[in-house]
Design goal:
Elements lengths: L1 E4 L14 H10 L4 E4 L3 E4 L4 E2 L4 E4 L7 E4 L6 E5 L6 E2 L2 E3 L2 E3 L1 E5 L4 E2 L1 E4 L2 E3 L16 E6 L3 E4 L2 E2 L8 E6 L5 E3 L2 E2 L5 H4 L5 H12 L17 E3 L4 E6 L2 E3 L5 E4 L4 E5 L4 E4 L2 E6 L2 E3 L9 E4 L2 E6 L2 E3 L3 E5 L7 E8 L2 E3 L3 E5 L10 E8 L2 E3 L6 E4 L9 E3 L5 E2 L7 E2 L4 E2 L2 H6 L21
Parallel strand pairs: 1-2, 2-5, 3-6, 4-7, 5-9, 6-10, 7-11, 8-12, 9-13, 10-14, 11-15, 13-16, 14-17, 15-18, 16-19, 17-20, 18-21, 19-22, 20-23, 21-26, 22-27, 23-28, 26-29, 27-30, 28-31, 29-32, 30-33, 31-34, 32-35, 33-36, 34-37, 35-38, 36-39, 37-40, 38-41, 39-42
Antiparallel strand pairs: 24-25
Length: 437
């Protein structure tokens, strides 16, 4: 592998020249694996950066930072679209992207790794067709497999939008990412790796020059997986937005942007969401972790602070089923676990629910009489199960109230319903957030 510095290829820090053409040309000319190490400083790019095969773009090895920035009115992108024949083994590490987003599209990509980067001041569209909302993300990866690990996502008041969007991905790993504000660092310490904490510390020290605010949690949604996510994991991510019901829209100069769910996944198959922290959205239906019309979901060991798990099935979906949903060993503060569908089952149209299992969850709430595990009489499957003795309030082990749709079965029986490939998660517990002190 050839290793060069940014200076070696004529890209000089802090000289305020648009280096898009030079970087794109250099990458396109390479015929072997190349690592480009960017020296500390700021690098300006005003057009899209096109990723190429076997290229690594790395920031400084020292405790300093490299910033890629754009003054464009709309964020430029780094990545490749579906028209690129092949894009393999492209790596990013320890670069701060200021008004630059990541976008990889198409089925012809593999070995793409995005690690310990930061995304700030992203000017993504605020008034767009809801069906195209994934275009509003700071990181948008589609159709292939990706490793997105230990990154930082921040959105100030004038930069609202989505954090991460995945679309029709397979074998994708989203691990150890931080979405929030500097005030959240103490809580996040138990979730994040040292390289992420180190970059957060560097960014906090330079927050003024990076134009970062006290509240960087202006996310419409933290993670969208709007269709056909398969064989993928979402693990040890720390997500803390804010509780505003409406976000500021810089295009209209009004608070007119609705919040969406903290995470929103549908039409998935074999997805594990484990040991994450979720907080900082409105407590109504605009928040919550939402899953829709799919199968094989493990939601285990997560810490939910004033939010809920919201399973929803709609008759408009191409998948009229909700199968093999395993919700276990989560800590839920002032929230609930619920299933609902928008119609009543009939002989001609119904949602096929199979093994909706809820056990081992601990709750904390001011109202312990409230039903915390809820089904709906609209579904006729009778496949909702929970263990009364293992879904309890954390303070005194008092049993949580469940609606009549949930059948109480023993812990031994409910654990035996978990398929062999998921049995290892039965012993997974939540991570306690760090102290604010």
């Amino acid at each position: 592998m050839k290793k060069v510095t940014s200076q070696d290829i004529g890209i000089i820090a802090d000289d305020d020249i648009d280096y898009t053409e030079k970087l794109n040309q250099y990458m396109s000319e390479q015929t072997e694996e190349v690592e480009i190490r960017f020296l500390p400083g700021r690098y300006r790019f005003e057009s899209n950066i096109i990723a190429k095969n076997n290229i690594s773009l790395f920031g400084p090895a020292s405790d300093e930072i490299a910033v890629f920035f754009s003054r464009n009115g709309n964020a430029i992108s780094l990545g490749a679209d579906a028209t690129v024949d092949i894009n393999n083994y492209f790596k990013l590490r320890k670069i701060i992207f200021d008004n630059i987003i990541i976008r990889f599209l198409g089925e012809n990509k593999k070995g793409i790794r995005i690690r310990c980067c930061a995304f700030i001041n992203s000017k993504t569209p605020t008034n767009i067709d809801p069906n195209q909302s994934r275009n509003n993300a700071q990181l948008d990866v589609r159709n292939s497999s990706y490793d997105v690990r230990n990154n930082i996502f921040m959105r100030g008041k004038n930069f609202p939008g989505i954090g991460i969007s995945t679309y029709k991905n397979t074998s994708t790993k989203l691990t150890g990412n931080f979405l929030g504000s500097f005030k959240d660092i103490s809580k996040a310490k138990t979730y994040l790796e040292s390289e992420t904490l180190s970059l957060l510390s560097l960014m906090k020290d330079k927050s003024s020059s990076l134009n970062l605010e006290e509240d960087e949690g202006n996310f419409v949604s933290a993670w969208y997986a709007t269709d056909e996510l398969k064989d993928s994991t979402f693990t040890k991510n720390f997500i803390s937005g804010n509780t505003l019901s409406k976000l500021h829209n810089p295009e209209t100069d009004s608070e007119d942007i609705d919040r969406d769910h903290i995470i929103y996944i549908k039409h998935y198959n074999n997805v594990v969401i484990s040991q994450n922290f979720f907080s900082g959205w409105p407590t109504d239906a605009h928040g919550q972790l939402k899953a829709r019309n799919a199968e094989n979901l493990v939601l285990v060991g997560n810490y939910l602070e004033q939010t809920s798990v919201n399973a929803r099935a709609y008759k408009s979906s191409k998948n009229l089923f909700f199968r093999n949903t395993y919700i276990l060993n989560n800590f839920i503060s002032e929230g609930e676990i619920n299933y609902y569908q928008d119609f009543v089952d009939s002989d001609s149209l119904k949602i096929d629910v199979k093994d909706f299992l809820v056990f081992g969850n601990h709750f904390k709430a001011s109202n312990i009489e409230k039903t915390r595990i809820k089904g709906t009489p609209r579904n006729s499957s009778q496949e909702f199960y929970y263990t009364k003795t293992s879904n309890v309030y954390d303070d005194d082990n008092q049993k949580v109230v469940a609606s009549k749709e949930f059948q109480d079965i023993s812990e031994e029986v409910i654990k035996a319903k978990i398929p062999e490939e998921y049995q290892r998660y039965v012993s997974t517990s939540w991570i306690v957030p760090g102290s604010d002190v």
